[in-house]
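PROTEIN DESIGN WORKSHEET
SECTION A - STRUCTURE
LENGTH: 522
TOKENS:
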């Protein structure tokens, strides 16, 4: 007997956009919607068309695009207390979005009805029923989000149940139980969903938040209890502590519980989608993100690496390829030649464990880490170093730079930098101003390098970190600079060390562009 597929409902464009630091443009939302459609999510919640002009513009734009797998959903609330559904601006705004599916939320918790809506409990039931009936009469599929359901059911189970019955009787297709405050634990989620499943005939969904750190676990527990529809966001974006990460939810349901959400070939795109959405959102993807993070399958300890080489399941809960990720071996001064040879294999470099080059690389890594370098988090710089020591490095350019006119304490931090790039017998010198020396160097470097490599505009510096290596030396201490770069398809990190922070930054910057050109010419 085939197992029923779980409906995945993505709310990155609505709930996710409420996360601190996230501000999607209309074009951003269109790009993410198209990528989620390619992935195969059945529902993409586009926003609240009555809430702001940006969401109205999105629904206008997305109508022009033919999606193959997903239905775009408009989101809003029930009618206002004491009004008629047909005259309610919110409901008519939802209809104006012209989506086939509409999600509305209503109050399940009697405290909210009395203290937020300031109406009576019976009127709230009428608000729910009238709103669903009105939208159904317009031939829309209605998904009902029971806001604060778990809190409401805990405090007044009889009334919370009546709110679901009102929505179901009015024609709601799915009843979504929401842990809006994110304060419920998995055992309670399982218990309540199980009880509701026995009492209510309609399909159940789950919408959780991560305020207690168990948003993903709560979503999985709800499915184990009988929910067939799961809401969440890519990368766990959302208000306060976020919504549960759909990447982990889908992987857990499909790979751990055998509950299909995506086809196996689409499951392999999860890591790429997580990174794509983080790029569009201009948010740094956490390295330790389950399943999709750069460190999700990274091994550093020698005992771990030895075991993984003998049998990967000893320290990996799944094959990383199932979700489009890959195994990484971290090189550091605590590792040996095995680490070096395994890292070379990972980087597609032909290097035998017993070769003289392996010993030379290991000794150089140890020497440099003694100086303050750290390569376990800087694969790009490590690959450049390995190729150079093996005589397989390729210099795409020679470069020199100068920083000048830095004003300290003047209220005007503008800095000028001059960079000269020599490549193929030709030389280009460019000047640029920036908000600081590193910014100015990067701008001038890109301008000069773009003459020889126009695609350098693909590269963006995503993150910049400075660490003190030896704090005992005071202002003369060495600093370690990490620069994370991306071309929108992959992410790489480079490292530089010096007692001068500008010099350390420059070393990491040069490696960043050197590595990009290496990738382009492999």
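SECTION B - SEQUENCE
RESIDUE ASSIGNMENT:
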């Amino acid at each position: 007997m085939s197992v029923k597929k779980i409906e995945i409902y993505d709310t990155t464009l609505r709930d996710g956009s409420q996360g601190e630091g996230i501000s999607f443009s209309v074009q951003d939302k269109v790009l993410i919607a198209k990528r989620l459609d390619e992935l195969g999510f059945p529902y993409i919640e586009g926003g609240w068309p009555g809430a702001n002009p940006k969401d109205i513009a999105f629904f206008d734009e997305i109508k022009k695009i033919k999606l193959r797998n997903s239905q775009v959903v408009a989101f809003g609330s029930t009618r206002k207390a004491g009004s008629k559904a047909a005259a309610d601006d919110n409901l008519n705004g939802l209809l104006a979005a012209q989506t086939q599916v509409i999600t509305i939320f209503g109050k399940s918790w009697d405290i909210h009805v009395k203290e937020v809506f300031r109406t009576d409990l019976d009127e709230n039931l009428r608000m729910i029923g009238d709103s669903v009936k009105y939208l159904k009469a317009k031939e829309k599929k209605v998904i009902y989000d029971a806001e604060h359901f778990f809190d409401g059911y805990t405090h007044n189970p009889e009334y919370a149940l009546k709110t679901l019955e009102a929505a179901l009787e009015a024609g709601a297709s799915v009843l979504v139980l929401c842990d809006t405050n994110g304060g419920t634990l998995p055992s309670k989620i399982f218990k309540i969903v199980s009880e509701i499943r026995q009492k209510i005939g309609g399909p159940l969904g789950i919408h959780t938040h991560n305020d207690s750190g168990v948003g993903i676990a709560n979503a999985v527990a709800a499915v184990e209890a009988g929910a067939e529809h799961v809401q969440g966001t890519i990368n766990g974006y959302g208000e306060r502590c976020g919504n549960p990460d759909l990447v982990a939810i889908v992987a857990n349901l499909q790979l751990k519980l055998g509950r299909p959400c995506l086809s196996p070939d689409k499951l392999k795109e999860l890591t790429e989608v997580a990174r794509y959405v983080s790029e569009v959102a201009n948010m740094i993807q956490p390295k330790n993100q389950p399943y999709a993070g750069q460190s999700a399958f990274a091994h550093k300890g020698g005992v771990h690496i030895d075991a993984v080489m003998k049998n990967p399941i000893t320290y990996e809960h799944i094959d990383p390829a199932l979700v489009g990720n890959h195994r990484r071996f971290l090189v550091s001064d605590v590792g040996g030649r095995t680490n070096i040879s395994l890292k070379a294999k990972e980087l597609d470099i032909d290097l035998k464990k017993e070769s003289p080059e392996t010993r030379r690389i290991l000794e150089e890594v140890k020497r440099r880490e003694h100086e303050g370098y750290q390569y376990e988090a800087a694969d790009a710089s490590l690959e450049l170093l390995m190729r150079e020591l093996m005589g397989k490095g390729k210099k795409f350019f020679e470069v020199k730079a100068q920083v000048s006119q830095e004003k300290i304490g003047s209220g005007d931090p503008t800095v000028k930098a001059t960079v000269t790039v020599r490549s193929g017998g030709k030389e280009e010198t460019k000047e640029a101003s920036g908000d600081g020396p590193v910014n100015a160097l990067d701008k001038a470097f890109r301008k000069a390098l773009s003459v020889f490599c126009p695609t350098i505009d693909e590269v963006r510096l995503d993150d910049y970190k400075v660490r003190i290596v030896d704090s005992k030396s005071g202002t003369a201490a060495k600093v370690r600079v990490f620069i994370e770069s991306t071309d929108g398809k992959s992410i790489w990190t480079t490292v530089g060390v010096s007692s001068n922070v500008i010099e350390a930054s420059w070393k990491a910057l040069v490696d960043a562009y050197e590595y990009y050109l290496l990738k382009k010419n492999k």
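SECTION C - NOTES
The chain has three domains: 7-281, 298-389, 399-520.
The mean pLDDT is 91.
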